[in-house]
Design a protein that fits this description.
The protein is α+β, with helices and mostly antiparallel strands. About 25% of the residues lie in helices and about 25% in strands. It folds into two domains: about 60 residues, Alpha-Beta Plaits; about 50 residues, Membrane-bound Lytic Murein Transglycosylase D, Chain A (Roll). Strand 1 and strand 2 form a beta hairpin. It is globular and about 45 Å long. The protein starts with 20 loop residues before the first helix and ends with a strand.
């Protein structure tokens, strides 16, 4: 599963009918806009296409995760989304059954108490540190010394 591939039947349920999907996913991204101007969203049979201009590579990644972690989305395309190149080291992780943010922090950083760094990097995707779900994809930034 690459950055732009997601589990279609897992995620936040934001739309009921496919006809309203584009508008609902756009609302979801704009609610906590990570830095995308001129955002346009198109949804077609599980594939979301984002266009506009991202302030940073991080903003683009967050918009992709926000769209991709919606139930009914299996792929996000960004061919029409302008973004500066990535400069920071970031990994992506798909949450598995039984995972906790502390355990994920322990795995990636060697310190379970570093989980707030993961929450901070995913504020638009993780609204409550106790409410993560299997299949959810998150950003794992390089540990801050």
């Amino acid at each position: 599963m690459g950055l732009f591939d997601f589990a279609k039947h897992i995620g936040k349920n934001v739309f009921g009918k496919e006809a309203e999907a584009s508008a609902k996913i756009k609302e979801e991204i704009e609610r906590d806009n990570p830095g995308i101007s001129g955002l346009d969203v198109k949804y077609d049979n599980g594939v979301v296409s984002l266009s506009g201009k991202a302030d940073s590579a991080e903003a683009m990644e967050k918009a992709v995760l926000m769209a991709g972690n919606v139930k009914g989305v299996e792929q996000v395309k960004v061919d029409q989304l302008e973004a500066p190149p990535q400069t920071a080291e970031v990994e992506f992780y798909v949450i598995e059954k039984g995972d906790t943010l502390s355990a994920i922090a322990k795995h990636f950083y060697g310190d379970a108490n570093a989980y707030p760094q993961i929450v901070e990097a995913n504020l638009e995707v993780i609204k409550d540190a106790d409410l993560i779900f299997p299949g959810q994809k998150i950003r794992i930034p390089k540990a801050v010394a």
